[in-house]
Amino acid sequence: MTITDQLDRLIALDVPALAGTSAKALRALGRDLRDRPGAVLAVHPSLVPASALATLLTHQGKRGFVVTDMTDLDEFTAIPTVEVPDQPLYLLHDVDRGDDMRNWSPDEALPAITALGRSPLTITEGISWLLQEPKGLERNHCFMTIASRKTRGTRLDARTPAIWISGGTGHDGKATKNAPKVGWCWAGNRHTWLGFASTHHRSV
To answer: S-S: 6 plus which of 41, 53, 64, 75, CB 3.0-4.6 Å?
Structure first.
């Protein structure tokens, strides 16, 4: 899709209202971005925080949600080795869901992704990608966004954000079954249904 198409998509999803701006102003923010094949428009958390952006995700007619034990989602920021453009809107290039790393832990996946010359996605970037490519979220083929971590003093919080499809069990509640779910996994744990989304590079 072109940048214009992607901006139209964000406007149709009511991103301007979440950002406290107008459709015209949102288009202006993307005016100077260059169309490139396969580029995905990313919403910076300074424009719309992850907790709000997550509610725009849809799957089988269900709206996205953040798990109840992650009320601090918006405190997760980019890790030091990931440089996110300081722009309200920017581009991700060659996004990959990372299925080949399913059943790896975040601690194992990060150096492997970096060694390939790629960069893991932040949680807001992962949501942004799914807003443009909803089919990127499939049951048993979901992903972590390990570029986002929360700092606790001099160390990182052990949780890593992830996006998958709710089974409607436990604290999620039956009403959330099949809904896109923003949750978390321990950095040292492996999950057979979660890969590690990454991008080749970011640009403005």
So the answer is: 41
